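# step 3/5: fold
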Amino acid sequence: MNTVTYDGKESVTLAEFAAKTGSRHAWVAEKKKGVLVYAGHTYVFTASNRTVVIDNQAGIHLPEPIGWDGVNLYIPVGMLDRIFSISPSQLKPSEDIKIEKIILSGADPTILKILASGGIACDVIERSATSVTLKVGAGSNLNEISPTGLVSSVTLKNQNNKTTIDLKFSKEVTIASKGIPNGVQVTFTSKARVTQPVAKRKLVIVIDPGHGGKDPGAIGRKGTKEKVLALDTSLRLKKLLQAQGHTV
């Protein structure tokens, strides 16, 4: 990892960190923000700001602001462990990072763990109701994983130091991912079954509006009689109940 001295401190640019870890990053110039997707999490850095936002939630408050020279964002090397839970010695060029083990376990939920020799990024590049394709920013010598739980088949492809994992499921699933030390954990959970509404009984309902005839009920300031409002409300209620199949 190439470091530079910025404001008297050994630092690494956000772009350099992304390149060496195989992560994705983007720079939002008008907001002076840098976005990094690393190990299953999204980090937002703001120029000259001390707070790093993680997954759109309150994140880490640093003792010093993120450096910015008008072109690059600078992260002090001493802050890497605090932000990413990794030390500088763990950072390796993306071409040196290899997937060491892929573990698929559990029934429902089914958990996929991808463990590598360094920090990795894992992105969903295709998704349907019963399948998903994951792209991992690291190469692999693994050729086969046995399906289990909700996963009915798994296919691995290695190309250009990237690993693509195609998974098919026996039923519709939801997907959640999170970063773990030197890896990513992806959890697949079957969607909750939609409970069919219980058929309602058809009822015979009697509505008694009250008052009527010679009894006007209460009379308002403008002469409105309670019996008129009661009858009107009852007729409206009758229509609503009949629309639901009841006898009124």
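# step 4/5: annotate
Residues 67 and 74 are 5 Å apart (CA to CA).
# step 5/5: archive (pending)
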